[in-house]
Amino acid sequence: MPVxxxxxxxxxxxxxxxxxxSPSSQSSAQSSNTDGDSxxxxxxxxxxxxxxxxxx
Length: 56
Known about the structure:
Pfam families: DUF5908 (PF19265). InterPro entries: DUF5908. The chain is 46% helix and 0% strand. The chain is mostly helical.
C-alpha cells in the first residue's frame, strides 16, 4: 500500500568555520560578513545558485 507524505520539516544549523559557540562570537559574526560582501551581493549569489539548480 503506497504512503503519501504531506509535510516534510527540515531544520539545519550552520556555523562558519572557526567561530566559537560563545554569544559574543555569534553576535560579531551576525553583525559583519566574513568575506566583506554586501547583502546585495550575497542575495545575488543565492539567486544565481537557485537559478542553476532550476536549470538542471
